[in-house]
Amino acid sequence: MSEIHKQFDAAIAGGGIIGCAIAWRLAQAGMRVVVIERGDIGREASHAAGGMLVPLAEADEADDLFHLCVASRALYADFAHELQQVSEISVGYRTEGTLYLSLSDEDDEELERRWQWQHAAGLNVKRLNADCARKLEPQINDKLRWALKFPDDHQVNNRLLVQALRIAAQKAGVEFQTQTEVERLLIEGQAGRKQIVGVQTSRGEIRSQTVVIAAGCWSSLLANESDILLPNLKVEPVHGQMVAVEMPVPPVNHIIYSCRAYVVPRLGGVVIAGSTSDKFGFEKRVTAGGAASIIERAQEILPGFGDLAIRETWSGLRPRAGDGLPVLGADDSVAGLVYATGHYRNGILLTPITAKIISELVLKGESSVQLSPFSPQRFARLQAAGQAP
Ligand code: FAD
Ligand code: GLY
């Protein structure tokens, strides 16, 4: 493979959904941008996800992450539309909404708790009795007691979204270097006046005054390789498995959650069920036990699930920082170095707002979103206060 030696305005380390979306926005603003991806574009967590855009279904409280997720959800319809127009790829953005089922006494308590805080906060959540919920989705388990409906919790086909992002970014002038590993960050200057000047890759040096680390669960490995000593910045992989089945008509239309699993209908007669959550290190694998537990829990939602033909099984690695929040912002000690990582369970949902925040930071030096809860420096602050996660 040929060597590359080039000068760019911004180099993005990692070609997942986050890196591609940032690259697109920066190139739209006129920057010369390169995305450097070790494998193929969008084949890691961004390929593995369910594509659910569901802050209400996943949140336990109205914390900083919840507000960021809701803000990103509000950008999604326009984001998907713009992307579709530019790329000419339909990204499967669906607005039927999400149901959350109660199937037992314990579920009643959990749904009641969610209803209480979400309703009190004025969020768009509805209570449905079993008959109403079954009218919407006749295939739901007869054990259904009642359900919540989140009309604004939508979905997108994440795999198509990544393809669309790649095309849109290329049209805007982004260069993609695939099968190319970022081995090290190149930093010049003394403490207090350090500046990023590029990256060393497996195919040569790339020079750039801005580097964005968007390497998913490998982000802190990359930072550590380069002696960027952000204390306690550790992004770890949280393994999740999925099972997709073929579902003949009549299909399911809503995302459906129970307290133990979720099912996601895709256009074209496929339903995805997930997921598991394990610490297996960086190894991806579909285990017999993992797939069996997903099928059993999906069957509790849709009793016919276990009889359907399996289309595909897969696993992926969610990038999780120590406190479970994304890491978004500039490195205080190295000018030009920016982090966009740690999106954990919500990276597809958080893509539009991450691209907006990071492009604002790179282009204007400040973001319209309050970033202190997500600052890369928070780990150092927490460590100094003896509260490191
Ligand atoms: P990735 O997609 O992992 O991309 C990082 C890229 O960086 C990879 O392509 C990798 O090869 C590359 N890379 C790493 N190191 C280097 C290097 N040194 N040099 C070059 N390239 C490098 N989120 C939602 O919002 N909704 C969902 O429904 C949802 N469901 C999920 C279900 C599962 C089972 C899983 C696993 C995740 C789910 N997520 C969901 C989370 C979401 O998938 C992630 O948060 C998101 O994809 C993270 O995107 P990313 O671009 O940061 O990471
Ligand atoms: N957000 C769904 C998952 O991470 O499994």
Describe the structure.
The relative contact order is 0.19. The protein folds into two domains: 4-48 and 160-234 and 323-384, 3-Layer(bba) Sandwich (FAD/NAD(P)-binding domain), CATH 3.50.50.60; 98-151 and 236-321, D-Amino Acid Oxidase, subunit A, domain 2 (D-Amino Acid Oxidase, Chain A, domain 2, 2-Layer Sandwich), CATH 3.30.9.10. It is built from eleven helices and 21 strands. Helix 4 (64-87) packs across helix 7 and helix 4 crosses helix 10 (351-364). The protein has 389 residues and is an alpha/beta fold. Helices cover 32% and strands 26% of the residues. The structure holds flavin-adenine dinucleotide (FAD) and glycine (GLY). Flavin-adenine dinucleotide is lined by residues 13-19, 36-39, 43-46, 48-52, 181-182, 214-216, 218, 222, 240, 242, 274-275, 316, 318-319, 341, 343-349.
